[in-house]
Amino acid sequence: MASPSPHDRSRKEEDEDDPVERMISRTGCAELHYAVQECMAEHQDWRVCQSQVQTFKSCMTNFQNARREQLRKQQQTSTPAESAPS
Q: CA 1, CA 26: separation in Å to the nearest integer?
């Protein structure tokens, strides 16, 4: 029995419960992720897909930087100043 191709990224019902899919969807980079997957399925050579990989990487980096900044601001507003009297 032949095993399925690791590059077969056709959407299946069980993908809806995939934690990686959910995480990527929350970043706003899902379409770019799918573009990488489609390129890999078509060409089966990651070197051919570098444009898609770099675009996805840039999107994820932007999301991570924005999230880091958001968390930093939340931390600053939720912790009282250390110099305040007790």
A: 36
Per residue in 55-85, pLDDT tens?
999 999 999 999 999 999 999 988 765 555 5
Residue 24's CB is within 10 A of a number of other CB atoms, namely 20
* pTM exceeding 0.85: no
Cβ contact 56:36 at 8 Å: yes
In SS3 terms, the chain reads as CCCCCCCCCCCCHHHHHCHHHHHHHHHCCHHHHHHHHHHHHHHCCHHHHHHHHHHHHHHHHHHHHHHHHHHHHHHHHHCCCCCCCC
